[in-house]
Batch of 2 targets.
Target 1
Amino acid sequence: MSKNAQNNKKAAKTAISPTRAEDYAQWYQQVVRASDMAELSGVRGCMVIKAWGYGAWELMQRELDRRFRETGHENYYFPLFIPLSYFQREADHVAGFAKEMAIVTHHRLTIKDGVLVPDGELEEPLAIRPTSETVIGESMSKWVQSYRDLPILLNQWANVVRWEMRPRILLRTAEFLWQEGHTAHETYEEAMKETRLMLDVYGKFAEEHLAVPVIKGEKIAQERFPGAVNTFCIEAMMQDGRALQAGTSHYLGQNFAKACNIQFQSRQGNLEYVHTTSWGASTRLLGAIVMTHADDDGMRMPPRIASHQIIIVPILRDDTQSGEVMAYCESLRAELAACSYGDQPIRVKLDARDIAGGDKRWDWIKKGAPIILEVGPRDIQGGQVCVMRRDKMSAGKRFMARSEFVQTAANELEEVQQTLFNEALALREARSVNDIHDWAAFEAYFKKDADNSFVSGQGFVRAKWCGEADSLAKLDPLGVTVRCVPFDQSGTTGVCVLTGKPATQDVIFARAY
Amino acid sequence: MSKNAQNNKKAAKTAISPTRAEDYAQWYQQVVRASDMAELSGVRGCMVIKAWGYGAWELMQRELDRRFRETGHENYYFPLFIPLSYFQREADHVAGFAKEMAIVTHHRLTIKDGVLVPDGELEEPLAIRPTSETVIGESMSKWVQSYRDLPILLNQWANVVRWEMRPRILLRTAEFLWQEGHTAHETYEEAMKETRLMLDVYGKFAEEHLAVPVIKGEKIAQERFPGAVNTFCIEAMMQDGRALQAGTSHYLGQNFAKACNIQFQSRQGNLEYVHTTSWGASTRLLGAIVMTHADDDGMRMPPRIASHQIIIVPILRDDTQSGEVMAYCESLRAELAACSYGDQPIRVKLDARDIAGGDKRWDWIKKGAPIILEVGPRDIQGGQVCVMRRDKMSAGKRFMARSEFVQTAANELEEVQQTLFNEALALREARSVNDIHDWAAFEAYFKKDADNSFVSGQGFVRAKWCGEADSLAKLDPLGVTVRCVPFDQSGTTGVCVLTGKPATQDVIFARAY
């Protein structure tokens, strides 16, 4: 490294090292660690979600739950264990999940030569649920007799296990938390309406609450949920241009109804199979918000899901004044907590830990608290607060009259929320192309940089695809997949970017998490 | 059965059969089923918690969570899996749980002769958590270096598995939901203060929120949590006089700190082990409220945990008027939903299902909705509502002016809450004795009726116990245990009811769930 480069590096010192440009994958790990959202545990592939990450998940839950209730769903809880005989009923489903299931085979431990070993072998092994279609189907088959028992609209908040060979914190872990909605309907039309409705719920939630712009579309046959007839998804773009599936909604047809024998007497008096749907979103979203919003100084938490939206850091330079400063900060905290942002009280925290003010500030920068206030003796005298907005770190600190800040606090928070959304949207637009029409250009685009696409500018290619399954093999060496067939089709006819054949369907190609 | 008895039986027809007096255990199963709170699943020992039961659990969670936050705790999430090597670190802990653990030994399935079989054997088997002291201790050992990192005050909402040989729905199932608090402190005093504080939280919650009166006390050594130094508990009395442990709080001493190596540099500069606590309450509480409040017509849900506190049943006798009735009911619903009970909006539901009004009424009686309103054309004309309170079924229906009911709805709900508490307290007082001083009287009391203690009037015996472990064997044939050493000790000296030796300690003896 030249002397100059060294100096530049020093000048641009960041809280997170490496930076996104230096090593995106490592940067991600470091942000998760530095923000104290989660960490890998000693249990293979499993994580510990810490207070700052779990708090964001709880706020996501609260909002999703509100939207699920608003659309008529109720929460249930079903068993963690699925007997293998249930699982075997739907062939595609088994094929899709068999390779990554945790299996319980024993029901006690015994000590042998001083070591604990499994004992009490089960007659039928039990899978830990990777998803609950089959165990919920079993219940539905008992609950449904007539069309009067339909629709069934339920949701479950639960943990699931998919044995990941290459875990990545928050994004891909052996155990993760999620919600899974499961519904049963009389007709195709009703079930499809539900499937699309829930995709809309996810789409609005992602954009309005997580500040993550998404593209809504349908998965191609090869990317469907195992056992589904149609899979719809919302796809987001991470800062390295890769796609992340942020929620899916499946129309399952009568596949699971037949597998689980969910039949009902129709209005016409016939015995028919119900049409089912399922839809889910998971703690993967915590990974998505890190990869969407974090910068080289750490996380930037969207206000709507920040457990603490405003942090007050008392600046105590002199013991004689610390009582006065703390009292002022506490009264400011109470005043802000009495204000509302959206339909909820502002979540404000006074950081009273016994460490230096500067250390506190950097803690909250790395965690990504939307607004940090610093209050020292001089600010009290001047009746002001020193405001730092996490979305505008480069703008530095602003001094505002205390009363003015209190009045505009909710607006400031909403501005942070909007800035995060706008920046993510601008990034996606900058890294989306729709002028690639042939394989040579397509290959050149994705070959630019397979390792560090944060720098390359690669992202989403919107192009025509003829729909031939065989043609997808060309994508494998590039690590690219069809992310979805977006709902907003152009309706034009062109040529397939993979085969050169005539094609009308627009699809999104990208590398993905 | 004589003709007279038959007639009497008919006259006293109840919605639940058998009644409590006829067969208490069966009555319990039937109430859970008829109230639609939960049902056993096809998965051995596991249950499905349905909307009405899960809704009550969510309201319990909300209130407990509020109280946990108020006392400084934050939510985390830890892995479902515990490596056997973690578990083995605390000998008493292993001994206490080894016989009832689900063990994962494989991580995929493969098809062999057309049947799914476990494949991909794990190097180290994983236990499904029956409780998380060891896996959380592993994390704490990494987080704690100095006294500045203490206290750690965390809680987790999770599912746990204890392989029950004789499952009983809601009360004892292989998988159940719970919260487990885990804290680490510098000193014995702090940890003990926390342990007692959380017991108080449970006690207040049970009485104020679940309307379940409880006795607070300490478990004797033989009944402690495996690995604990002290276990404190709240004990409730069910309607058959049996005790049910409704929450526990453990001072774990330095046992788990040593097992998991959680050391810190003290204020004096020494390397010391932290003092830890843990405390938990589970979906078992759903069983407790059924056994405390239900009657021979079904569940009686305490208003504070009822997903729907007031049900509006439209009475539609004539198609021409049904539009008018539904509109009136909807406006009444909206008016009530705008009122508050406690600090929350009243939860009111208009039951618009396409079935007869009488069927709806009985559905909600069996579910135990606190207040049911019926509204038909004549009520609209008279500007009135027909009110039925679930706690006063025998009082029948009351007609009230609509405006008067709306004004007093919150009071009515609070009266239901108080009635349920008062009845449970009265039952406990009626079935508690403190005048048994020798073994003969003790044995006679509990021998009266071992099978149907709903009728016998048996309950809690408060008597002296000398503390000799050997003496407890006398209790085994009676199926009685020492429930706790209640905090409110009389301070008198007497004779041990088991040995006749001098004794000062008051304990509560009872049969228990």
Target 2
Amino acid sequence: MSIQYPNGKRYRSNSSPHSSKTSIAYGGRGMSFESDIDESNTFYLLKEQAVIHKKPTPIQIVNVDYPKRSAAVIKEAYFKQASTTDYNGVYKGHYIDFEAKETKNKTSFPLQNIHQHQVDHMRNVVKQNGICFLLIRFQDTKEVFLLDAAVLISFYDHQKERKSIKKADIMTYGHHVHTGYQPFIDYLRTVDELYIN
Amino acid sequence: MSIQYPNGKRYRSNSSPHSSKTSIAYGGRGMSFESDIDESNTFYLLKEQAVIHKKPTPIQIVNVDYPKRSAAVIKEAYFKQASTTDYNGVYKGHYIDFEAKETKNKTSFPLQNIHQHQVDHMRNVVKQNGICFLLIRFQDTKEVFLLDAAVLISFYDHQKERKSIKKADIMTYGHHVHTGYQPFIDYLRTVDELYIN
């Protein structure tokens, strides 16, 4: 979910402790896939069902100012590319690791949304028997699917043949994620069905 | 590990993809507990033994500049307090979660090094059957100990009686971590003995 900010626009972060550069304060539910997932994770945490957090955005800090009697101010820093997926945590003793992406595309998921380092990380997690997947939301229908990392990696490795995953394939090889009220995106129900129960 | 930077000093980050404000480029091994753990984690990753990363330092971004034809520059940002521990990942299917602290104190570990939100996070992880602990290094002897989260929480909850954990208690209730060449801090060997094998 790469959101481009217009030049000079003041950056606004949301109230989540794990807000990142993609967490704009939309002031409403259902606006950002990321904030919807954050809300679900908060629900899971409060209900003591799981401990899953979004990792902070990695920042390369170049210059910090230390004014007397006030907090350190970062005066120059740059966004760095993350070397892992965005979300991880623990659920019923299992390690959970996933990336979440939303697409405006109506018929397929472009693989350019996924970066090499994320796929490498997923391969490593799978080797350690972690539960690893991609959550995809189609913006037009608001449908959410869980695609197991092994399936994603297979499509990723065949990019020379096809640069996207057809929605039909996602519906076949992936799993529909229930979206409701609390939590908004109940992906752990799908995790239960697929990996745990 | 709160490192205070002198006013106006130029910030230097190390080459780790998960460097944070506490990762000063020391240019040598054994200088920073954090960089030693990062090095051990890189070793585990390359040997396909575990996937454990330090989380990026959470930053509150206030102002970003978008120069034409170059990368976005963060012009004003602040360090935020993390709401979790610093390290997590997966090892043999198990969720691993820990905090690492070094102390100059020779006879005890001051509990002021541990924050309420970290203890809260540890309680949550323990409830989800995650493997959760504190790594402590005594700076003078370079000894490293693993203290299970449940033990740490117990000491933390009795701070009114005692504001630190005696080294003797750490040696009794904690577990010595082997330090060697590769990896430098072999905490997963201790994890194996305690939680897995």
